[in-house]
């Protein structure tokens, strides 16, 4: 079983061997400078975007209905902003802030009682058995 660090180790060894065979000098300072500079910048950029995406999904999952309302109002504001007056834009901003203020409240979930769930399950089993019976009559 290959762990996550084994391909990285093999890639490092291959890089080191290629570097030694082509340039005949150890990579040393160039490698350290590359790892501390552009590689760390890229890693921080990827980390920041992944964390931002995860934060968005957490925000969306707390109350999907209110989150969708907020996104719809934001899109209305972005689409209509060039063609509306500053007063109308301020009204949209206030309305958006009001909607955002309501966001943490959760919408009530639709629940089924155990009896209703069992009834639906038995009904589906009965439909399946009837379908198998009809299939047996058609084939036999």
Question: Class by helix and strand content?
Answer: mainly alpha
Main beta-sheet annotation: none
Fraction of residues in H or I helices: over 70%
Order of helices and strands: HHHHH
Shape summary: flat
Q: Round the Cα radius of gyration to an integer and report it.
A: 30 Å
pLDDT < 50 stretches: none
Number of strands: 0
Give the DSSP E fraction (strand runs of 2 or more residues): under 5%
The protein's oligomeric status is single chain
Q: Note the total helix count.
A: 5
Average pLDDT, to the nearest integer? 79
Describe this structure in words.
81% of the residues lie in helices and 0% in strands. The chain has helices at residues 5-23, 28-62, 64-80, 86-101, 114-139. The longest helix has 35 residues, at 28-62. 0% of the residues are buried.
């Amino acid at each position: 079983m290959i762990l996550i660090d084994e391909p990285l180790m093999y890639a490092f060894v291959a890089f080191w061997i290629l570097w030694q065979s082509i340039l005949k000098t150890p990579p040393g300072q160039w490698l350290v400078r590359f790892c501390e500079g552009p590689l760390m910048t890229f890693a921080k950029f990827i980390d920041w975007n992944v964390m931002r995406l995860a934060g968005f999904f957490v925000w969306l999952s707390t109350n999907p209905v209110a989150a969708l309302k907020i996104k719809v109002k934001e899109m209305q504001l972005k689409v209509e902003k060039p063609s509306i007056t500053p007063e109308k834009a301020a009204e949209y901003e206030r309305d958006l802030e009001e909607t955002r203020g309501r966001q943490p409240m959760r919408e009530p979930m639709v629940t089924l009682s155990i009896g209703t769930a069992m009834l639906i399950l038995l009904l589906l089993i009965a439909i399946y058995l009837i379908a198998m019976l009809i299939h047996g009559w058609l084939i036999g």
